Every structure is written in structure tokens, then in C-alpha cells.
Amino acid sequence: MLTLAELFDVVRHTPLYDSWPVHGPNLPQQPGDPFWLRLPTLGAGQLACFTSECQDCFPSGNRLFLSSGTQGKPKLMPFTDADLQRVAELCGRFSLLEGIDANTRSMVLLPMASWTVGRITMDGHRKAGAQVHGVDLHGGVTAWQQACDAIRPTVISSTPSVLAAWAPYYSGPKLTLVETTGESLLESERRLIEARFGAFVYDAYGLTECVVGVECAVRQGFHYWQDSVYVEILDPHLDQPLPTGAMGEIVLTSFQQGSLPVLRYRSGDLGRLAVVPCPCGRKEPLLYLHGRKEPNLALSRGVNLDRSLLEGALQAWGYNHLRVVWKGTPQSPAAPFLVDQFRPTLEISWRVDANTKEPSVLRRYLLDQFMELAELIHEGDLDLVLLPQRVGVS
Amino acid sequence: MVKSTIYPGPTTPIQGPVWADEIMARMKTDHRFANKMKKDVCWADLAVMSALSEPLRWSGAATQFGRVYLSSGTTGKSKRIHFSSRDWQELVLYRAHCLAALGVTRKSRAVVIVPFSPWFSGDNLGDALTNLGASVFCAGAYRPHLSSTLSIVHGLKADTLITLPSTAVALLQILEEGRRMGVLPQTSSLRRVILVGEPASFDLRTTLETALGVTTHMLFAASEAVIGHEDPVQPGRYLWNPHWVHLEVRRDDGVIDAVGEGELLVSRRWSEATPIVRYPLGDRVMLRPASKDQPGYFSYICRQGRACQLPTGVTVDFPMLERFLEMLRPSTKTLSVWAHHLEGGRTRLTLTLDRLPSGQSPDSLVEIFAALSLDVADVVASGFVSLRVLLDPTLGAAGGKAIQVRETGAW
Q: For the complex shown, is ipTM > 0.95?
């Protein structure tokens, strides 16, 4: 991985950071020190603007990949061979943590060309010693099952929505684990995939701009390696750090890329850092992900639901430990193969205690309070999933 | 796989590749071959590999395992091709060598629009371009994405496009439409289009050159081996580098030769995981020897193998042809199949027999053949394929295989 000094060396030569205070003598000695906190943050819009204007002036020897476009228009991100090697090394750590090894035969069912996810996932499995079979998403459920029958994998890696679409038709073989990546994983998707594929799901979290971490066997958050990524939790509206354990926007600094360095990048995701060690015993810090930071949930048919209104209503009814996740129809490249297989889902999970009620009661309450929700559910344009949990929602 | 039997028929002295001893020594110490080979076997004694066999599985250490890809199945059956790390590294180097010969440099800005995993081309080309130091954007050959990919080609001011001929046709349609609607510029930054994966007609190449103001080149490769590249000075001629591959032809009478017309046989110097030695790729070529003035070259003639493709993805496979010939025996001993792809996506399929069975006419045999497979019957009935049966008493007179399959023309 790049050291902090190496990172700032490339930052100084990158026009994107021309206006940042990185050209004088007072540079941070370590992430989080007072000099570090004087640095501004990098928004998705700024990065998109830079990559769009500089498409024809990227230096030679770069592989260009598209970002997913969850924060606006997809960006073209450049990676050198050395960058891809560093990302692969990190993905190799993910694989080893999950239990992928030299006895693994993996089927990586992900987009293979324009996006990084397929390439780096395959490289990571290879680093762990696995025999890797990449399969591009083209073709749909029948083609995926045929490829699976031919490969006979012990591990499948794909996006949650692809696996959830495939799950009802999956007919073997028996797997040792399933890896999900590339988009947010709903708890209901995890349960469906685990039930149908017969193996535990390990989710990995990352952006094209910066790969972050992976779940351990406890599966409550993402472990990340501090030599590859520095994670900060900032106020969503200010460049102000929040106390450890508080929820805020996840801001990432990557020590993986040198071609286009990513420094204090606002991910658009909400999360918080764990204050107590993970029960698995690993030393790597743990990051909890809580969803996107947008104040409105852009539901189907142009309906916007104010997240704070929804959460406020639930809290008023005694639901204090809850997680609200909205997942719309996946965008390209999986979209053409998920037509009629995926319904936009609003998933609400909460920790069960004396004040909380049965899901059916909560459902009636929500439909009474939010008529737009009731209509979308009635018309079949939305699934409302209510998941009471004994542990896990914190 | 490769057997130690001496090849039948008259053997002319064959000059093996300069690294033949290296391969022979490796095979003799590889337990997958050692017990099948005589101790004193030499290059000339090696038999031709079977294009239909599932290749050997990787038997080395997991840390040296590189990659695995599927072959396209044009020789009759899709196979898994394994590459060790060293195999992959050498393939990438050779591909980079071919691209450099076609004018790609570290200053090039390339866009690759070909299929990626599980197929071989995309990953290999992407790595080779990066190896050369070029800037690369890789996109899959997926039709709904082509329009946005074309916008990226313009945004990046790419000078090199690498794609399949069939994809190039689709790109041209999108380009024309985009230019008509004013969303794509009338001029292009592209300087060269490199075509891979399928044969391309000169008509298509001329159309591309006119529409984009580029020069077109061809690469010659299969999942099993990167063969070479078109001579940039003399289109239609293919050059290869004997440091990486050794080429021979199997003539119609079964003799293996270093020059002449026949089925192309390829041997790869670095092929640890899946040994590729005298492997028939299913292409008929004319192999020319090197002279003092110029290196050896070959000209592509047609596909020649055990199967052929028809429109809409239908395959006429070897078992089907064997079944057909079995029905005609003992009168008929030899069957030649020629699939000629015409403009407009149609194919003329000609079956030539050395003798007609008694009581059968060519028309009745057309019906019998079509009835062997629902898929074939469907494309014949739909008008995609015109099927005819001819008689040629001289067929098979020189010996050779009972069933020959050739495929000509370009989609």
C-alpha cells in the first residue's frame, strides 16, 4: 500500500488538488492529526467534474473503469497496474478472512469489463490461491445456472440482487460460502440467499473510488485495514469529525490508488465506527454501514418519502434501534437481466424490546401513516420488509 | 491428448521449433505424459492433439495457478483452458508484441470492445495494452451498452479500437444514427481499428475505413493460443513470432508439414497448465516458408474442423454428421460439409458425398439431414440456411478423413 508521504507526493501533482493546502511544508504526519483536519473533503461532484474534463489527458499506462453512478453520473476512474495490484492485495485479504483458499474453486459472476468490481474480485480470489472462473453477467438466470453446472464452484461471488434473482432457481452445487459485493445487501436478501444457496453470505463494502472492508463470521459490520484505507465519520453537512461511535457520513482516504489519488472522499453513505472490539477477536477496526445519506427515499413512480419523517414516526412508537434501507432497481449492468426479478424494497429492521410490537401491527401503522407507501405496496411497485431482530441492530 | 505413437503415413523430415527440446524435456518429466511417451520420442513423432478432448487440469502448486477461460467451442466443444502465471505472462507479452507490430504504442489510447470472462480475448487484450503502457478502457461486447461506449471512445479521444467484426457492424450502425441525430461528431479521433475473434470480409474493412477514416488490421488468436498478427504492409498475410509459437499444417492426406496448405497446427512454447502441442485450431491456411528477405507468413483460407456454425447460433456438430454418414453407409464413405456465410446473415450449406445410397436422391437426403436436428430444420425452414446435397465421385480418393467440415465467408 502507499504510505502517507507517497500519497501526498502524488496528491501534490494531481490538478484535482491544486487548490488544497498540500503544497506547503505543513503536511499531515498521520491521518487525523491537526494538519489533516485542515484539509477539505472531496465531493462526488468535484471528482466527476474533474474526471469528465480530464478524460483525454490521463497519463499513459492507465486502465480506465466506470464508477457505478450511485452519486450522479458514472465517473471514469484511472488505475495503473500498480494500483490494481494494491487493490487486489486488499481483496486477497478479504478472501482469506472469508475462508477462500487454495482448495476453493470460485465463480465470480460480476460485470467484467467496464467496472472494477469483477476484475478486483477475481484478482483477490487468485491472491488467496483459489481457482477462479469469471463469468460476465450477460445471459440471465438460465445462463448463470448452466455456467455454474459446468464450473461446479465451491464459492460464488456476485451482487445481492443477482443472487436474489437466481436463488429461487438455484440447483446446486453445495457451496462453502457466498460473497456479495457491488451494491448494498438487504437483510431479507441475505436470508433468501443463505436459505437457497445453503451457505453463509459474506458481504464486502467498497466503491470504485475506494475499496473498504469485509464482514467477518459475526457479520455485523465491515473490518477494514488501516494501511489501505483511512475511514473518518464526519458531519454530513460539515467537514467536522464526529465522536467515535456517532453516526455520520463515511469519508474515505485510499492508500491503494496513485494514478488518481482519493483523499477525504465523501462516500454518500452513512455509518459509524465500532467502539468495542468485534466478538470475532480480529484487531482490524469495524465499520457499521447504515445506508445512503439522502434525506429523501426516492421510491418508485417518482414518490419521495422523507426519511426523517419515517424514522421520527417509528421512534415515536418506541422503535429506537432501527435501520431503514431503501433499495431501488439495480442500475446497469445487471439491470437487463433482473427485469421482473427484482422489486424495489424498503426494509426496516429493529431490535426487539418491550416497547416494540409485532410486524403486522407495525405494518398497519405504517400504511395508515404513509398513504403513498400503502399505494405503492398495493400496486405491487414496492415491497415493504419488516424484520424484528433479537441482536444486530445497534 | 498427445500420444507417443508415431504419426501414420509417410513422414517427411520435420524441422521442429528451436525450443522443441525444451518442450519435449518438460513433457517427459510431466507425469500426465510421461507414462504415455516412449523414452526416445522426438518432435517429429508427436501426434496431433485432439481438439475435442477436455484439456488436462492444472497439476502444479496453487500459488502458480494463473487463470482459466472457456474456449469458444468453434472446434466442436467449449473447453476449459488453464494458464499458469508464467503461461499468462508470456501470452500477454506476445499479444503486446503483436499489438506493437500494428502500431500501438505507450502513447496510444485504446478502447477494447470484446467479450470478457469467461472468454479469453478481453482480459488478454486489456493486460497486453497495459503492458505496452497504453491507456485502456475495456468494455464488454454487449449490444445495449455500445452506444454509451461509443461516447466514451469520443470523450477519451481514443486512437485505437479493438473489437469483433460483428460488433464493428453494430458500432457502425450506432455511429451513423448518432451522426444523423447530431449526438456523435462527424469526425473520429480513431486512427486504427484492430479486429479479433472472427474473420472479417474486405467489404467490412473498407466500410470501416471509409466511415471512420482509419486503417484496419487483424489479430489471429484462439483461447488456446495467440497465433500472430496481420502484416501491416501486406493485408491478408499473417506473421507470427517463433519465439512464442510454432506453426505447422496437417495436409489433407494427414501428413504434417512446415509449409503448404492444410489445417493449422499450433504449438505454444509456454503452456504449462494446458499443454498446447500440435493443436488443431480448425483453420485452413497456406503456410509459406521464411526466406532470406522476409519471415514466414500464412494466409487464412477458411475454417476447417469438426463442426460449423449456422445463423442464430445453431451448430452442426460432429456427432450429427457421424450419424448422418452412418445412415448412408455402406454406399457413402466420405462426406464433405461446406458452410458458406453470405451477406445478409444467410448461409449456404453444401453437403458433398462420394456416392449416393441406392434409392436416394439429393433432395431426399436434404430432408433426411434437416430432420436429424430440430435446430437445423428450423433455420432451414426459416430461410436462414439454404441446404443442398451434391455428388463428387473423386471425393476421398486421396485418402484422409471420412468427414471434412469447412466454413468460409464472414458474417
A: no
